[in-house]
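Before the break, one more example. Copy the sequence into your notebook; we will annotate it together after we see the structure.
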Amino acid sequence: DENPDMVDGWIHYATVNTRLGRGKEAFAAYQEAIRRKPDDAGALLAAATLLLQMNRLDEARKHAELAIKNSPAGAHQALANIAIMQGEFDEALRQADLAAQADPTLPFPVFVRGMIAYNRQQYAEALPLLAQAGEGYAKRTTQPSDLHFFLGDTLARLGRYEEAQPYFIQELRLYPQNTRARAGLAMLLQSMNRPDDAARVIDDMLRISPNPQAYERAESLWKMFGRPDRAAAIRAEAHKRFGR
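Here is what the structure looks like once it is written out:
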């Protein structure tokens, strides 16, 4: 309110709204930042990521394309992720190669090949590709979100539960608000006949990410685990907190 032209303020405000599950408010904040600084690649790519999560893929692509000039590697990574979501795997590979051309140290192409195999439910083929990507990213200062989740989920789908658990835990160390990873870990622990541990993971999800999406995941998990009473309690609490 005191300094509406503070671009960083709008970006931080958008980040907080994202963590609270307020996608509409988060995107509006990113738009304010972009309006004041149209060439801010960080705001453009963050908005593209949010729009991807909201399944507004055409808008996500437009924002990512605007970031190509100032952040080609990040922009082409975003465009590859959008293409994967749309099932356009050849385009995803093309964008991954462009990202690697912009940053030759980036192990992104092998990650994309792993994700394509994963999306085709070719888990045995996906695993070594994702593992190779993980080794490459381990040498970098930043790790992409969901990489360790997909490694864990791939191992879980192959029935290798004990090997899968550390990857879910690592994903949550890097990205504590990743509700998909917490839900995956809860399902894994339930499959390993550790219901008390699974329940603690669900409780942690609601404590760390107290937003409507987390409550929806928690309700779905309790239904899956054969506990309609717990699911109903979660639904009632969500209605009280969010009016849903």
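The chain has a mean pLDDT of 95. The first helix runs from residue 7 to 19. Try to locate both features in your own notes.
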